[in-house]
Amino acid sequence: MNRSSLIEEPINPSAFARPIELYVFIDPLCTDCWSLQPLLRKLQVEYDRYFTLRIVLRTSLPSMNLQCTRDTESTDTCDKAHAAFPSIAVKAAEFQGKRAGFRFLSKMLEYSFLKSKNVSSFSILLEIAETLNLDIDEFTSDFSSKNVLRSLQVDLYLSKEMEVEQAPTFVFFNGNIEDEGLKVEGLYDYSVYKQILEELVGKSLTPEPPPNLESLFQRFDTLETKEIATFYGLSEKSAERELKKRLLQQNVERMAFQDVTLWRKKRG
After folding, report:
1. pLDDT digits (tens, 9 = 90+) for 37-92
2. What is the mean pLDDT of residues 178-184?
3. Domains (range + CATH), the chain
4. CB proximity list for 116: less than 8 A, separation 6 or greater
5. What residues pair up with 24 in beta bridges, in sequence order?
6. Among 64, 150, 77, 139, residue whose Cα is nearest residue 108
7. Tens digits of per-residue pLDDT, 90-136?
């Protein structure tokens, strides 16, 4: 499993500035992928100058078929649901920018695992796109386009070439295109991924200090209390106390679920 055997596609020149390429395979309907999110965010904030990240969708379907995409072309799309729709929607969001794709995936996981919404329903996916202020006309058009199907087929091809059989799975590549990728299946402690990065880079890595809270919310939209505490080296109680101050100042909004509290920047 090396990159020279993968699909031929243009390489982003900026990738050469970072020594590691990281592919993260995710199933949008997988519970472990919700648990993965805080870990991946922390990795991005602290060490993303060392790696380029590509999220690869490993759909829960055995294979992607044309019919699920054709179904979206009818006028009553909003009444439809399909197990492939979450993956299609993430790809449609990505067409409005890589960050839009990340934010859509994050919000979709929130809807699925915290709000218990059926993210296989197009109407719910459209609601998510509206919440994130995506261009709805563009999103709807891309959702039913053949370009989305092609993009998903590339992801399925990557899963096959890298022999990825479960989600989540991390695959790390170093700067040598002929070297085998290092595959890590399942979910592990954050320190494991940090150690792998250090071994591949060949030196001890210094984490970037976290940006201010406003910048974090611009990047990730919503954050758990525990995540925020971890970013700033605080206890959860201390983090919640600081967040409550901002809540009183109407700088943030709080969303409480069963055992998770999410925070986001106050919206006008």
Report:
1. 999 999 999 999 999 999 999 875 544 454 454 444 544 555 688 888 999 999 99
2. 87
3. 3-201 (3.40.30.10), 213-265 (1.10.10.10)
4. none
5. 55, 170
6. 139
7. 999 999 999 999 999 999 999 998 888 999 999 999 999 999 999 99
Distances, alpha carbon 27 to alpha carbons 121, 157, 210, in Å: 16, 15, 28
Strands 182-185, 252-256: pairing is: unpaired
Find residue 256's DSSP bridge partners: 261
59 vs 71: CA distance, rounded Å: 17
Report angle CA 185, 190, 191 to the nearest 5 degrees: 105
Q: Check if the beta carbon of residue 237 is closer than 8 Å to that of residue 257.
A: no
Torsion of CA 182, 27, 91, 66, to 10 degrees: 110
The pair of structure tokens assigned to 48 is: 């993303």
- Non-local (6+) Cβ contacts of 238 within 8 A are 229
Q: How far apart are CA 91 and CA 95, in angstroms?
A: 7
In 3D, which of 22, 83, 92 has the Cα closest to residue 58?
83
Model confidence band, residue 9 (pLDDT cutoffs 50, 70, 90): very low
